[in-house]
User: Fold these one by one.
Assistant:
Number 1:
Amino acid sequence: MENTNNNLKKLDQKTLSQSFHRWFWGALTCFSQEHMQTFGYMASMLPILKKLYPNHDDQVNAIHAYTAFFNTNPMLGSVIVGITASMEEARANGKDIDGETINDMRAGLMGPIAGIGDSLIDGTLIPILLGIALGMSSGGSPIGAIFYIIAWVIIAYFGQRFLYFRGYKFGDQAVNFLVGKQGAAVRRAIGIVGSMVVGGVLASWVNVTTSLKLKGADGKIFLNLQDKLNSIYPGILTVIVTLFCWWLMSKKHVSAIWTMVILVVISFLGVLVGFFNPGLSY
Amino acid sequence: MTINWLQAALLGFFACLCSNSCMAGQAVGNYTIGRPLVGGLVCGIILGDIKLGIACGVAMQLVYIALVTPGGTVSADVRAISYIGIPLAMVAISSQGLNPLGNTAADLAKSVGTLVGTVGTVLYYAVATMNLVWQSFGWKDVQKGNLDKLPAVNFLWPWVSHAIFSFLPTMLLTYYGATAVKALRNALPMDGIAMKTLFTVGGMLPCVGIAILLRQIVNKPTDFIPFLVGFTLAASLHLNLVSITIVSLLFAVLIYEIEMAKGSNKNPVTATGSSSVNDDDSNDDEEDI
């Protein structure tokens, strides 16, 4: 690629925007277990390659760098697409960058970005938004759902757009604020918010109770277990069941589905001995 | 409540839009249309009972509040939860004559939704497998240099996968399932042990969802403390979630300041190149101990 003449190639806003929108919409539309986001990536790089390389053969040559396997958190992964856009621009201008350099960067970043993204977006931000939305939904009100739709779509669209253009502008320096010291501090701080909100969600919406009551010979109840438990710590059974599930999954490596099966067994036995009674009636 | 063909087809269409690989994109499809709370609103509008739809959506959202899909492995399918599970739960609740806003209705919704959602992972893998066909077209196009055909591989052909494995199953299961759910009412009496177990499990299922989230955020025993503080604020002090969020922001600011101050004495150079990304990340973990 001998483009060392004076007129440097520069990607315009429109092309970058098109590339970003393709990623925003199409990161996972053609997903398979084998190639995951590879085709989404190629589709979003295509406008950029077409802009940078007028020659068709160069375009075909360039796209081969993006046939390698790719998978990351699609929200934060937007920054990686932005970085490749700037690297591709540098390559088209004759800088010492080849497909391998681009692929090493992608392969190196997709793991850490996936880990941070999954815990930050799926594991923290979405539960916080949903927690607040659930709180607005009492009495079957649609306001919570509407709040979530508006809040999340705005955050997702402009957040990803910001990340994409930050990636384009700063190249691989762009991820420092995610993985660096400040990024780690922000993640810990958001993690605290997430933990507390999730605790609040559990207490507000989940209520595991026992119906166990012991009656004396005269038919009077002398032990109402639920009342006793409430006087110790309100919601203690809910916390115990949750911690039990956590213990099964993280310490005993039981899968989520088997954990649910274990809960079925516990419920069945609990109903048999009268520990649980949902109080059903027509 | 019944589900007619038009309603079933609409539910099928929404099922194509969500899930993990979906036609409306990740942010809008999976993370918005696919969330049970939003699904509850959509199903409520389609089936003409928004209140009941939201009530079912809230119940199921609790179970799946932390649906993390590391490396593309799923333990539940949002298309099945939101657009098969919720409509069937709505029919079940209204045919059982339960109060839509009551706890028993919510517990029934959770049991139905979780069962459908777990079985529904089949659909997820089916779509992903069928996409391999379109991807093989894509590889040929790349080899031959037909780059203009790539957008169709990514945006158009997967619709066929979804027509077969999202639209049809959703339409058929909601249409015929509604009849089956009603038949179940007579087969299983409400005061029998099967229904009692079903409802008890329903009440506990969100604990699994929350536990999945805890597995993400708890690395050491003290990480349980903010979670328990949040629980206590709601259970004992009866604060609502917006109030809890605001209280938690105070702690977030404190943690941020402490974290930023912590390293500044030890190593004043904070900006690191991307080459040390991994080292940097593991250092942070060590500092925490």
Note: Chain B touches chain A through 131 residues (CB under 8 Å).
Number 2:
Amino acid sequence: MQSKRTIFPNKLLPYLLLAPQLAVTLIFFIWPAIQALKSSFEREDPFGFRTTFIWFDNYRRIFADPNYLSSLGRTAIFAISVTLLSMALSLLLAVAVNRLLRSGKVYTTLLVWPYAVAPVVVGILWWFIFNPSIGIAPYILRGMGINWNHRIDGNQAMILIVIAAAWKQISYNFLFFVAGLQSVPQSLNEAAAIDGAGPFKRFWTIVFPLISPTTFFLLIININYAMFDTFGIVDATTMGGPAQATNILVYKVYTDGVLNLNIGSSAAQSVILMLIVIALTVVQFRFVERKVQY
Amino acid sequence: MVENRPFLTFLTHLVLIAGVVIVVFPVYLAFIASTHGPGEFVSGLVPLLPGSHMIENYSMIWNEGLSSSGAPPIWVMMLNSLVMAVAIAVGKIVISLLSAYAIVYFKFPLRLLAFWIIFITLMLPVEVRIIPTFKVVADLGMLNSYQGLILPLIASATATFLFRQFFLTIPDELMEAARVDGAGPLKFFRDILLPLSRTNIAALFVILFIYGWVQYMWPLLVTNDSRYYTIVMGIKRLAASADAEPLWHLVMAAVILAMLPPVLVVIFMQRLFVKGLVETEK
């Protein structure tokens, strides 16, 4: 690993410098993760007196549980919808801002602040808008002949959390797309324009391929976001319901473990989630090493 | 601009205005709701124009809170959030600066191992290890305390990486010159490295402050004493008060107050915010 050409010769000092971070990491990250791994192989009796080692029983049970499998499916639908919706909107806005010179800055300021809104607050905002009795969206939808009630209709509940989660992520994607677009050399665009390519053709054949590293990076980040950072949104809007329709994995770990105290199953679910995060991180870092090149 | 196309420019503004409307509308509705009296929400449609109860609602929620849902006054929760967000940001920055300094400027046995232990925290967000982390905090007697709210969120691989990247770009000559002049490692760190890192520290502070402020699941788990509620988790309690319809006008006033500090930080420190965001993710 890289370090400086000349270094300080102290023997003890580096350990002291590292100690705070290592202590926090070991106590609050590594040790709990090991515990999660351990209790995912155990079953605790209802009174907590005895734990038995049961190999992969918890995992076997999870994957035989229709609720878990449906939660897995729901999470996939949710993550893909949020990612596509949010990235498409953000790309459109970023391309628009990139066309402007001075007024672009004003628009940028007006578009980036939702990054700072907490997911649970985002959930409450959209819960208010879609509230079946007083919300404005159901009112408009009624006018169009659609009866909105996400407390009963699972698909509508899913649509609600997708909208809320995508809304929050627009600002983040927008900033990265703008940065990506600004790194596209202007000369390429000008050359294509001289050759007679219109703005749309230039975008699809030159700009879009050149920002593919950004797009790919955001794809991973958004999937990660939708899977793990949306707990607050689900908790504030649907609480996993109706009938498990929006019970995404990270919410299910919480309800099974914290509310229903099913420690073994929840731990096994945690381990599966960790594997997903590790897979996403590895993909992301592989990509950072070898950017898509032209 | 490659060529002048008035229609396309018109379209561009149209798209952006639509985007701004989409982004602002939910917050506008919430703000409007927070300026009305309780009677406006009985039936039908939410009001779309400001009402006359703004000062009344805000002062009520700020000073008294909602006793029916067991939530303390908003100012208590805002203060808790502020303490938590600032402590997380400062804590992460301090421990990351120190550990990045150790990793870049020293060679010692187990250096690679230490690096990997820190690296692995990237893969263990609090959401995937809730119960065992909760148990550790409970065993240490840190439930319902600021330490319990702050410490488990304080380790940060991203900040360590950022500082490591940055330290690697600092010319070796600076350190050699400092050594020739007789500066020890701590003096070099304090008098040269820290001043050079100032912008990075500020940018990171903005991002980490927001990160700390918006935490929800963790405060929900480790606090059941209302003196330690943070605003973001307290709002959920306000909204879910008993079995009645929520008191929309007060909930929305709390929502506006809860998002104000981090949003203002983003708007007024936009350059630092963008720098912090883009660099921590690279």
Note: Chain A has one domain: 57-289.
